[in-house]
Amino acid sequence: xxxxxxxxxxxxxxxxxxxxxxxxxxxxxxxxxxxxxxxxxxxxxxxxxxxxxxxxxxxxxxxxxxxxxxxxxxxxxxxxxxxxxxxxxxxxxxxxxxxxxxxxxxxxxxxxxxxxxxxxxxxxxxxxxxxxxxxxxxxxxxxxxxxxxxxxxxxxxxxxxxxxxxxxxxxxxxxxxxxxxxxxxxxxxxxxxxxxxxxxxxxxxxxxxxxxxxxxxxxxxxxxxxxxxxxxxxxxxxxxxxxxxxxxxxxxxxxxxxxxxxxxxxxxxxxxxxxxxxxxxxxxxxxxxxxxxxxxxxxxxxxxxxxxxxxxxxxxxxxxxxxxxxxxxxxxxxxxxxxxxxxxxxxxxxxxxxxxxxxxxxxxxxxxxxxxxxxxxxxxxxxxxxxxxxxxxxxxxxxxxxxxxxxxxxxxxxxxxxxxxxxxxxxxxxxxxxxxxxxxxxxxxxxxxxxxxxxxxxxxxxxxxxxxxxxxxxxxxxxxxxxxxxxxxxxxxxxxxxxxxxxxxxxxxxxxxxxxxxxxxxxxxxxxxxxxxxxxxxxxxxxxxxxxxxxxxxxxxxxxxxxxxxxxxxxxxxxxxxxxxxxxxxxxxxxxxxxxxxxxxxxxxxxxxxxxxxxxxxxxxxxxxxxxxxxxxxxxxxxxxxxxxxxxxxxxxxxxxxxxxxxxxxxxxxxxxxxxxxxxxxxxxxxxxxxxxxxxxxxxxxxxxxxxxxxxxxxxxxxxxxxxxxxxxxxxxxxxxxxxxxxxxxxxxxxxxxxxxxx
Length: 759
Description:
One of its GO terms (molecular function) is adenylate cyclase activity. By secondary structure, this protein is of the alpha/beta class.
């Protein structure tokens, strides 16, 4: 008896695997939304999306909030910051008297007394050195009121709607805090969790007692250093204090009290407030039995709704220079009846914070944004059961796409995927802008993208395999990871001939004829196989070179094709140094076996080469050709003459400047008319020890002397180098050359070039 009809069996065989994978992806998304598993990467993605979502809303200038800016203009007109308190007194008098602002919040604190008037010095003189001048003491008594800058500032603050800011500190107690909103004893045993600071940097007592209140301008950051939320209430000791934004907004609204609204009094909240903010909230009690209820999150915090990108041109708040306020140049109608925040954007004084909308955002605007939310009575908040709603959305979308995309044509799959993606974005943005609800979107997008990519990849599986078959032709030349990279975009790679700047390498075994004569055929095969394997692995696997061919005991390779590397010369130099290290390691093993020692020479050159699939109808190969290739081969042979393991051309040295080099000579190789400088790479320049660096400097000085035909000076340097480094055959070569040149002067027109007539 057949339990499943044949039709459904066929459907399951065709679509079942894709359905299963789609359901598994959806299940993973649901489990993440329900907090059953966590991912820091997804959380970062959510934070990124939240910032981009904020940027979508164009800022609208709010006339109720003005930032009085201590900017460069103000410092030019009234001196460097911090200003004397008499200037601050004039600023407050202008704002509250002439401009009749409704509330002022200082995003600046005054923790130290102001002694800039010099009164203290004069008073000390009147009591000591000039104590016998009664007129001085009398004059000081008359001047004291005008020289007591703190007193002048306090007098300006007295009775005016001014909130002084203070900073919470982990390691000091300075100044005097304002009167707290409430204390722990006022909670009647109920628990209120708020950020508890061990210390503070507040204002001098005479100023704080004269002000209408105070508020903390400390800003909290997430672990990634971004400001996304702010504490509205903060605790110091047993007392609770408002933030600068809450205190300033309360003063502007004429608040009678600011209190926490805890679980026991939750019935005072409307259903929408409950849904948007959970149970705990902060309430600002206003005249006529009105109130502002602010939904809060963990530790009495709120999500900051950043409007615009901040500053004079990108924010939602008007900036007025403090200089224009002090001089009365600012229009009265611009400031009258507003809530003013005093901050600074002057060069060197800028209070900038990293936010989701901008990496450098004016700190004063963080407070301005919170004040605006309070005045508008609109707060962005995450619903209490948001994770359940997010999980339900992911489940519905994931199942829809998993089953639908498997059966649709490619075009319809794309249309459905785009439609669902747009709907997810649209709904999330509507909830944020119109309902003030914050829902995470990252996992939903990941599920949509994953299910879509799964089905598209499955549908195009055979076409991808065709592309991989093309790329696999390069497998014998390049490292497996490069083949995998090429398989991702097979259309990008082909074997057609082209001209490209590359770096070519030739390596050869020194004295191979002698080696082959000293070994049996079996030993020789093992000897050469071990050597070629080590060289090939260094070329392909370590620095992703392209292995061109074996020419007997020689190996040819190049960098920069088929996969282009901008640092192909650096990779080639690094590989050559690695190959020499591998040769030394093999040499130890060979000697231990009683085999002839292994010594190799390597030539490198960089330049324009022809690369592609070349050859005959019978046999073809992916290789490089050209003058630059020929020069690389010549350099490999030249290493024997100079007794070095590696020789590189001038172009390679210029293209890999991070390495230290020993210049060997100026040479004219067979088949080339123009001379070329050749060098021996030593190692990364940053790793060269002082002794080696000193040797290189002395050698280059000797080489310069040779080219200037200063034989005695050159010989003197080289002889000393020979004494220290007797194994360096390069020095012996030049000793012989200098001896020859002394006997056979090259002439005044000598260009210092060594010409090689053989390959």
